[in-house]
Amino acid sequence: MSTEAHVGRLPATEWDGGALPYRVGHRKLGMWLFIVSDAMTFSAMLIAYSYARVSSDAWPTPFPFYPSIIFSTTMTLFLLASSFTMVMAVRASAHNKLRAARRWIGATMLGGLTFLVLHSIEWSHLIHEGLRPFRLAGEWAERWPQAPPLFGASFFAITGLHMFHVLTGVLYLGVVALRIKKTRHEDVEISGLYWHFVDLVWMFVFPLIYLMSVDFTPGAGH
Amino acid sequence: MAEPEVTAETPAAAEEHAAHGAGHGAHHAPTGFVRKYIFSIDHKVIGIQYLLLALFSVVLGMLMSILMRMKMTWPDHAWPVLGWLFPEGAPGGVMTPEFYLSLVTMHGTMMVFFVLTTAPQGGFGNYFLPIQVGADDMAFPYLNMLSFWTTLLGLVVLVSAIFASGGSVIGPTGGWTGYPPLSAIGHLLNVPGQGMGVNLWIISIAIFCVASLLGALNFIVTLLNLRTKGMSLMRMPLTCWAWFTTAVLALLSFPVLLAAGVLLFLDHNAGTSFFVPGGLSNGTTVIDHSGGSPILWQHLFWFFGHPEVYIAILPGMGATSHILSTFARKPIFGYRAMVFAMFAIGLLGFFVWGHHMFISGMSPLTGAAFSVLTLSIGVPSAIKTFNWLGTLWGARIRFHTPMLFAIGFVSLFVAGGITGLVLGQTSLDLSMHDTYFVLGHFHLVMGVAAIFGMFAGTYFWFPKMFGRKMNETLGKIHFWPTIVGVYSIFIPMHAMGLVGMPRRYSQFYEMLDGKLVWIYNFNSPTYPLIQFVSWAAIITVSVQFLFIFNFFWSLFKGERASDNPWEATTLEWVTATPPPHDNFGGRVPTVYRGAYEFGVPGAPEDYVLQTTPDETGPNVAYADEAEGQGRGSSNGNDVHG
Amino acid sequence: MSSENIRDVFRKSDLLLMGVCALMAAGFLVLAGFNAAEAGKLLTIDSLFFTGICLLLAVTFAAVPALAMHQRGVRPFYVGDEVPPARAREHVHFEGGTKLFLNVLLGLLVLTVIEVFLAYKHVPLHIMLTLLIGLSLVKAAMIVAYFMHLKFERMSLVLTLIPTLAVCICLLFIVFPDSFRAGALRTTKTEAVPAAAEKHE
User: Fold this and answer.
1) ipTM of the predicted structure?
2) Domain boundaries, position A164
């Protein structure tokens, strides 16, 4: 462009209209905003859990290190690994290696599905022990007589909401993988954003719900 | 009149659009009736759909408020029509207290969610935000359609609560705030309306949360990414700033209500006790819940609830600023200050929710902090008020109907806002909490002022939306009784509150053997006020049907409007009336100046359109100008940092 | 080597049959999953038997459409190496390679192991909470920065998203004084107060 023609004028920045101020397309910006919003939902849930726990006389710490914590750590590892495969899928897609991208997405979905299966095994295990949203499992109630029945409520509510997100994510990734030829790279990246967010939420759910509930009785699970 | 300066879309850009297929703006004008008016993805049609939805809700809400006044003023009078309509809720035509409480709940929910949140943001925002920033549609047209239909689903679920709550009530009886434990375990104690009624209420709110969240996301992306060339942030109309701030508030506050709603739903249905403390009993039944805290619900609810107040009022402020400047024929006084004040109000709106909970027994330290923050909202509010007055100062005002309502907005906002400073102080709030003082305060500032903003917007933008002006005479006849009426309704309420009348009581006196017997004697001085308020409410509500008549009559018989009937400056007045499907007829406007250039010295008219070029050309330079491109890159789907 | 369009190769009735088979396969797959999750203990004869039967049936049903499509040269999941036109115009700039992402993953794993180790050592709860939150914030930052690629976006986007979220989440912490107060009001603790007062006298 000729600078002479524009003497005395300010150069336009990306904030002056006609451009993308963050150099990020609509969909990606939209997904980021959705993530911010969804993060608020999870924060509110976790705050509610913390509120209940802080205001209680006692709170059960029923998870023995082995098997419960080891089991949930395995779940965490699967989720972390799936996050890695997802970022590799996005990278492959950026280099237009569609077959590789689809394979990486497949691996991600596999990680997510494994997480879901392990999680549901854990749920059914706890339900068999007698844990319900409205009461503690029988033995726990004896060990922590002062504890309110809110352990099951917060556990099922928060992990349930997270599982719902994982499930949605797996389905979403499935659609992206099937249509990989027709989707633009940005859409693959957006699905990645969502998946990493699901992983990120687990990075707070896992320590707060599981690790903070490790059984403290001497010798438990060692 | 200056010719609007528009840049034709270059062939390259057009090709880009066509090739993308799914990108925004790629959709063509629909032809079938269903695609055009029902399942439309055109933001203009969706905006009108939102407005009609709000119109339906506001009529329902107003009728409920009249029923409430009737119960309170003539508690023992039998209304045969009501007895016929609600054989259990009003046996023999006399409304029961439970029926009154369900009216309170449904009135509040309808008005707050489906009128005050929906109409200014979903309606006017949807219609005019893309046009005012020079875009051809929202960033996500399909998401936009989805938001509307989700909102409608929420309304349908809420209306179904009227029929499904059991015969004696028309909804939950806990008020629009749905405080537990009543909302969580009321059904276990057989409180009417607390079974299916509460369930449907929570579901409706949750659906509405999702809809608003998606809508807010769409607004933010549209405003940030789709501004046309030259539309820098500080050249945007204040309406756009208002809608943007509102969208940010909605995006961050609705998810918290969603989470709280999920937890309340679990408390109600799955037996959890997030919000239910132990040992509750009504004397016969002991509730088997324990360990929760109702205060937690209050915190989560008001974390949403207070920003919600600003979600309702901010678009009204935007529209008022816009309209005041246009009809005062002066630039808005202190544009930048207005923008920062708006943002400050939005930000502070998040910090003050505790002032709804002063008597919940919160720690005095927290209370003091919330109190100070609450009072500090007075500063940006005062900035806005003084700037509005500064805009009016020395102006040759054109008193058209929209201007009257905009001035009414300022008046109501000040009148209602002042009492906010009273209520924001912990010590005073302790005695005024849950009295008619609160009722008068928030109805003036959040209810009626916001409604006045909407009226102003309707009269102002009606010509652009439908191609015909609304009738001026009817509009003025509508304005005067309305402003006198709303003051007559809500100013006396402050006095009643100071006397100590609690809100949400269905009646304060009854007739025994033809004699008036007060339930609480200290309320007896308010008798003339109660009567006066009720009559004022009935008259004011009747006058509103004049507006509805004017609206529909003008749709078909109104005077035809030109493209720029008010001689305004912003982009919606540059395009045709009503705007074509892609808003600017395939051409893209370029913006050269700020939004409110009225009375510019040396200009041929007393207003200069935003698209009128400077003699020196646009005062910002674009790299792609020399290459002669349109705005092919603004599609947003090609650019990767 | 490319894929045929499924609608060109098969008649409508064939497509319907294949759809039904696929549905049945999916149904049995769900049943197998449900059984595995519900059985409580997976490694019993009964549980394994039912899960196995369901899986076998699922495979049988899935085989019908799969084989038919294979024979006719329909390969719905085939992706060639050629770049489809929708992507050809995109100019994608993507930073970060396998090595970086592997390092991030390694870091996340190490932090997770440290967290789990804290639980193993039975560190007192309030210390553990502080450490866990700190470590989790680091993990979250790593995920956001590298996996979600925010580090490579413009600074303005970072400055828009992160402070907004941080302020709003910190605001929620205002509820905690109330929760401590509620805790102090709970029965056992208030019962403990008179007892302590008696001792004092």
Assistant:
1) 0.93
2) 25-51+66-213
